[in-house]
Amino acid sequence: MASTTVGSVIPCKAAVAWEAGKPLVIEQVEVAPPKAMEVRVKIKYTSLCHTDLYFWEAKGQTPLFPRIFGHEAAGIVESVGEGVTDLQVGDHVLPVFTGECMECAHCKSEESNMCDLLRINTDRGVMINDGKTRFSKNGSPIYHFLGTSTFSEYTVAHVGCLAKINKAAPLDKICVLSCGISTGLGATLNVAKPKKGSSVAIFGLGAVGLAAAEGARIAGASRIIGVDLNSNRFEEAKKFGVTEFVNPKDHDRPVQEVIAEMTNGGVDRSVECTGNIKAMISAFECVHDGWGVAVLVGVPNKDAMFMTKPVNFLTERTLRGTFFGNYKPRTDLPSVVDMYMRKELEVEKFITHRVPFSEINKAFDYMLKGEGLRCIISMDD
Ligand SMILES: NC(=O)c1ccc[n+]([C@@H]2O[C@H](COP(=O)([O-])OP(=O)(O)OC[C@H]3O[C@@H](n4cnc5c(N)ncnc54)[C@H](O)[C@@H]3O)[C@@H](O)[C@H]2O)c1
Ligand SMILES: [Zn+2]
Ligand SMILES: [Zn+2]
């Protein structure tokens, strides 16, 4: 399947963020061919994750513009650079914001997915190969985001940031497994590890939090307590096995106290999926002493500080955190896709909106309003 575009610059459409918080503009950009250990991918579908929104708003972050956001997507390999042996033209891939080189101490460890070479880096806007961008417009560089930049018809990624998946899997659905859903699911199944019959609190009932709830349901938790400031989330969350709801705004004392009272001293596990520092602290303080484990998933403001009394640790509570649910993207993500193919995991219920690429800004509006879960953006329409 030789493509005529191999080796040449591809002019295509991309949604460029020129400034923080300003609507993206669909521009004609040039996408350079992949260099050594890189792959150029034709993006078929992409969706919006809160992490894109957060860095687009650039509040309290190091802003880098113009930039092409997007990291939750599915696509097809268009061409490969020198030294790439694991992927071929035509392979179906999910880009992942944190990569796996397969050679460093982290990649060789059973415990870590924090690859030395390709771990998440929100400040870098260039390729690691040569410190340059593969995107440009009229010769001026446009920066990358998370090594994926999927809000473009074509993108270039390091081979270590691409998981090769089953070609039978429908890309318009499983694109949500490339970040949010795998992150939430893995945070519960791989990190919090609730026991059968246990109680789990989920802070933040967006797609990531509801995927964490789905993990709790799969693990056999008997009580799943959903916590959100937006009560509109509660109806939808019932479909994900959430059994009880708490809106911190309805109480005049800290939500951790409310949860401790509901559960006779605290939940067995909690998973925080908000990015809000107060929610992170509550998620830790609401777990039961003696055995409770809290897992942080939300991306906080870079200056946020976690404050709690050390006695909360001495009394045997555990605090953990994870990127991408501790999954190794190349090694583990294909099996998450297979879980979907075997109908052990539903992704359809996370998809509440669909828009053509030309209307990508609508996806931002839905998320800003807290409306729906994932909005799929079709690149071909
Ligand atoms: N660690 C990772 O690997 C990883 C991966 C993907 C996303 N994230 C992060 O996970 C978080 C959730 O992402 P999402 O796409 O589901 O976002 P989302 O906007 O769809 O959902 C977030 C939810 O949290 C709620 N919320 C906000 N502050 C709260 C508070 N103080 N208490 C209770 N609820 C609160 C909001 O009302 C909303 O319903 C974001 O911070 C995102 O950046 C982390
Ligand atoms: Zn994400
Ligand atoms: Zn590595």
UniProtKB/TrEMBL annotation:
EC number(s) reported in the record: 1.1.1.1
EC category name: oxidoreductase
Cofactor field: Zn(2+)
Ranges of residues in domain Alcohol dehydrogenase-like C-terminal: 207-339
Keyword Transmembrane: no
Location(s), subcellular: Cytoplasm
Residue intervals of the Alcohol dehydrogenase-like N-terminal domain: 37-165
Record-level Gene Ontology MF annotations: alcohol dehydrogenase (NAD+) activity; S-(hydroxymethyl)glutathione dehydrogenase [NAD(P)+] activity; zinc ion binding
Keywords: Cytoplasm, Metal-binding, NAD, Oxidoreductase, Zinc
Predominant localisation class: cytoplasm
One cellular component term from this protein's GO annotations in UniProt: cytosol
Listed GO biological process terms: formaldehyde catabolic process
CDD domains: alcohol_DH_plants
Enzymatic reactions: a primary alcohol + NAD(+) = an aldehyde + NADH + H(+); a secondary alcohol + NAD(+) = a ketone + NADH + H(+)
PANTHER family: ALCOHOL DEHYDROGENASE, ALCOHOL DEHYDROGENASE 1-LIKE
Assembly and interaction partners: Homodimer.
Recorded family membership: Belongs to the zinc-containing alcohol dehydrogenase family.
Designated name of the protein: alcohol dehydrogenase
